[in-house]
Amino acid sequence: MNRRNLALMACLVASAAVTTTSGLAQEPPPTANFDANPRSGWVPLTVRFTDQSTGNISSWDWNFDDGSTHSSEQNPSHTYNIPGDRTVSLTVSGPGGSSSKNLLIHPFSTQWWFRADFTANPTSGTAPLSVQFTNQSSGLFSGGDWNFGDGLGHSAELNPLHTFPRNLT
Fold first, then answer.
1. Tens digits of residue pLDDT in 41-79
2. Which one, of 156, 158, 133, lies nearest residue 145 by Cα?
3. Is the pLDDT reported for residue 18 higher than 80?
4. Going along the chain, which residue ranges are E strands?
5. Helix or strand holding residue 4 (H, E)
6. Which of these, 8, 30, 96, 99, has the minimum number of CB atoms within 10 Å of its CB?
7. CA–CA separation, 18 and 115 (whole Å)
């Protein structure tokens, strides 16, 4: 083998490293990226999605994670009518392949929040005074902690009865 053949063979090997079997240069896949505004709020929550993907992109596939039809728009808007965290997914595709990105959206309603409230009976008297507390809180909550302010502990009961052993001022 002479020098000219070796040089030609080196060029062919170097060329093969950057071409496909068809002889064309391989294009890198696009990189999916997007932002959403707003990312949380009260339902109905309308979110504007802004594509920030890079590369050669020929299609967009948005999955809003709420059972609705996917969107193929580049910059869609979507309205969430039911509360609950949603993982939105964007998949971009191009000649070099595809790429995906996820982002969490938080639509919520007043039902997911709560308002603490209670009644007490009686509200005054002479110690020792037994008081029945009745929980009248609204919204979703998993429990509570009653602190009676007399330094004698707490209660996790829904409607506790507490006896105050001394007068409080």
1. 889 999 999 999 999 999 999 999 999 999 999 999 999
2. 156
3. no
4. 34-37, 40-42, 45-51, 59-63, 77-80, 86-94, 97-108, 114-115, 118-121, 129-135, 138-139, 146-147, 154-155, 161-164
5. helix 3-16
6. 8
7. 64
Residues 159 and 133: beta-carbon distance below 8 Å? yes
> How many other C-beta atoms lie within 10 A of the C-beta of residue 129?
16
Which domains can be identified in the chain, with CATH numbers? 27-111 (2.60.40.10), 113-164 (2.60.40.10)
Neighbours of 124 (CB within 10 A): 8
| pTM summary value | 0.55
Per-residue pLDDT of 95-107, as tens digits, reads 999 999 999 999 9
50: closest CA among 35, 70, 30?
A: 35
What is the identity of the amino acid at 140?
L
- d(Cα 38, Cα 48) in Å, to the nearest integer? 7
Backbone angles phi and psi of 154, in degrees to 5: -130, 170
Question: Is residue 47 within 8 Å of residue 80, measured between CB atoms?
Answer: yes
